[in-house]
Amino acid sequence: MIGLPYSSRDNLPEQCDARRVAESCFLKWMITRGDRVIADVLSLKKMHGSFHICDLCHTKFSYVGWSDWYYEIAGHRLHISTKPAWCFDCDKLRSAERLPTVAECEREIADLTQKRTAKGTRLAHPNALRIAQLKLDWTKNRISPSRCIWCGGTNLQYLKTEPRDGLLPFIHPNCGGTIEFSSTFLGSASPTLFTPEGLRQDAKT
Fold first, then answer.
1. CA-CA to 192 of 20 to 30 Å: which in 10, 71, 172, 205?
2. What pTM was computed for the model?
3. Residues whose CB is less than 8 angstroms from the CB of residue 54 and which lie 6 or more positions away in sequence, other chains included
């Protein structure tokens, strides 16, 4: 959360009011005390996705493309990269893990090493190189194939995307209609932790 501070006189113990004044990929809040604005606050939304609808059966699907999903590995949290997929276990449009390759991890380590050794260059995160090495070790030791974020199943079919247009229309399995983009949505979400094998830690056993 990013706040724009005001003068020290605004630290007086008076009642404050927070009002949402705009909405996009961020929530913008105007913090007021009495009739005075004392801070503008931007809060990054933690979930965004899109709605899609079948032109034949008119079933509507919600797809969460990004949220607070993390692997918990050796005391660190690694954000989960996902791709849109049809999950045959859920029988729905879902997010599925996009597992990195060993080559991708090695390139990331090489790039970070080069940046660290370059004169006058500092890594954006002090533990970036160590986390990249952790990611490589995890990738080498991962046993399970990619899983559905929602059910943990592996019976998946990845769907085609374009950088500008996102998820492209695709045939609705067991229906024959075409599932197409309808609209987008934004929201908030609490962090969800997953095991190194891609299973939700809060899943019921």
1. 172
2. 0.73
3. 60, 61, 172, 175, 177, 178, 179
